[in-house]
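Weekly modeling sync, notes
Attendees: AB, CL, MP (scribe)

Item 1: holo prediction request
CL wants a bound-state model with zinc ion before deciding which constructs to order. AB pointed out that an apo prediction alone won't tell us much about the pocket. Agreed to run with the ligand included and paste results into these notes for async review.

Input as submitted:
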Amino acid sequence: MTDDAASPTCLARPLGPGDSSTGCAAARGADGRPLHAAALKFFWGPMDCGKSTMALQMNHNHARQGRRGLVTTRIDRSLGPRVTTRIGLAHDAVEVTDDLDLLALVRGTWAEGVRIDYLICDEASFYTVAHVEQMAELVDGYDVDVYAFGLATDFRSCLFPAAQRLFELADEVARIQVEVLCWCGREGLLNARVVDGRVVREGEQVVIGDTVDTADVRYQVLCRRHHRTGDLGPRA
Ligand SMILES: [Zn+2]
């Protein structure tokens, strides 16, 4: 997946001398790089579907083409300002707090002489709705691409507010296609919160847990059927 492939109409092509096509005449920047309409894209899926891995892969792909980006996260499993992945990749990141303004972050970085072409926003469902509005403003007002990655729903199977706003505002929404399986073999769709071996359905929307069996609070991906019945399978 590349963002260029999904860009509308005006894909860059070299303009020859005398090429008077008007529609794409402004499609290249002063440095000769193709310009494209910036976009807000939301990639979502349950735990373990590889969201952070895909976020870092996308960052790598864009950086390799000479684009400059920032990686942001909130409540990464490392509990630090880093994006870490279950398969061992890691990248420094800006920790998003309630009062962090993404516009100010980008403008401040520009002011230091560092161009920012895109943001990779990992764990975006834990951001605030205001952050999502800022993402849209970065795209529309500043021509910065924003790629957000996160869960859609919480442990009760209800949308996170930021995820809802992303579904409402994003130019493109994609479910990540790496299948995660429930213990029964069906496709895993929902995250269950497990406390003392039981699925809980009430509590704070965000509680840090782990996916290892020994954690006090842990999360397990289940199919809808077993999320509804609370059946954690034979190993539980
Ligand atoms: Zn199941």
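Recorded for review: Residues 35-178 form a domain with the Rossmann fold fold (CATH 3.40.50.300).
Action items: CL to compare against the apo run; MP to circulate these notes.
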